[in-house]
Amino acid sequence: MLLAYDPATNPLNNNEWAFPLFECIHIAAFAMSVGTIAIVDLRLLGLGVRHQTAAQLVKDTMLWTLAGLIIVITSGLVIFTSDPLRYYYSPAFRLKIICLLIAIIYNYTIHRQVALSKSPPLVSMLVAAVSLLLWVTIVFAGLFYAFT
Amino acid sequence: MSLAEFSQWVQGLDFFTSLRESALAYPIIMSLHLSSIAVFGGLILMTDLRLLGLAMPNTPVSDMIAQTRIWKRIGFVVMVMCGVLLAGAKLDKYYDNPYFQLKLLFLMLVGVHALVFHRSVYGNAAELDRAPAIPPIAKTAACLSLVLWIGILSFGRWIAYYERPGQVGSAPATTQRLSRVLLTR
């Protein structure tokens, strides 16, 4: 059944509104997940929200990061079904998925641990910089998929 | 000079022509545009949710506003600069696109929003901390901000899907995607 899947039958490819609508949801959701992670990163870098500890900010944003990630991944999966083979064979998309997996694992292990514990400033800054770099790479790779 | 002539002239400038034809610069600027939405747009979103009393209850409103202000401003400038480059490179295609025009209108309304609510909300954060509950005016500001920004995001995406009536040649995103899906089968 799956082998006989024809993307031309997908509502995303037959309804004028469906595809751009899912793109909007996808973008708004990554603004939420990456934005909340960025709040923690700004704190770790010592560049903002300095009246709170990184630990407080992680706890305060946790739910919204998770909600954003769930929506962004779900909408992403739906968008993926519009042309699975092209996504699968695209180097940009593969890079995006690899970075996404690394970023999620990183966010819930190293990033979280460093934010919750008292780490030396240099470690915190490095961890935050890597986090921002990972998430921005995912955005770049997602866009380059469309251009290649 | 008509708007159409002006748009053709802008897009025809050497700078914008090379930008449009560059295989790398154009997607990089678009990625930067989108990355600023992720990092800095997220800050605006969370500030609005904080003002509505929905998110980050342990972070005072004043910190949410003042401590992220500089980054929202930097993000806004980067976002707009990238936007100007992207729009300038294809202005002849965009100038009469209704979604492009709506996006510009909403961006102007963001300025109006900032002016209107500065005194009562954004420049008055310490007062909001002391209030027993977040006042309706602050919640109104947050709701309107959400409407404006989600509108800007959506119109921005919709620009790519509009086709000028009677125009042949520059296929909108839908057509491009569909022909790809059908051709690769």
Strand-helix topology:
The complex is a heterodimer of chains A (148) and B (185).
Chain A: H1 18-44, H2 54-80, H3 84-89, H4 91-116, H5 121-147
Helix pairs in contact in A: 1-2, 1-5, 4-5
Chain B: H1 3-12, H2 14-21, H3 25-51, H4 61-89, H5 91-94, H6 98-122, H7 125-130, H8 136-159, H9 173-183
Helix pairs in contact in B: 2-4, 3-4, 3-8, 6-8
- Rounded to an integer in angstroms, the radius of gyration calculated over CA atoms of chain A is 18 Å
Radius of gyration of chain B: 20 Å
Q: Tell me the count of domains of chain B.
A: 1
How would you name the oligomeric state of the polypeptide chains in this document? Answer: heterodimer
Strand count, sense and barrel status of the largest sheet of chain A are: none
| Average pLDDT reading of chain B | 91
Could you state the order of secondary-structure elements of chain B as H and E?
HHHHHHHHH
Q: Tell me the structural class of chain A.
A: mainly alpha
Helicity range of the residues of chain A? over 70%
What's the structural domain tally of chain A?
Answer: 1
**Count of helix runs of chain B:** 9
The most extensive interface, with participating residues per chain, is:
A-B, 48 and 46 residues
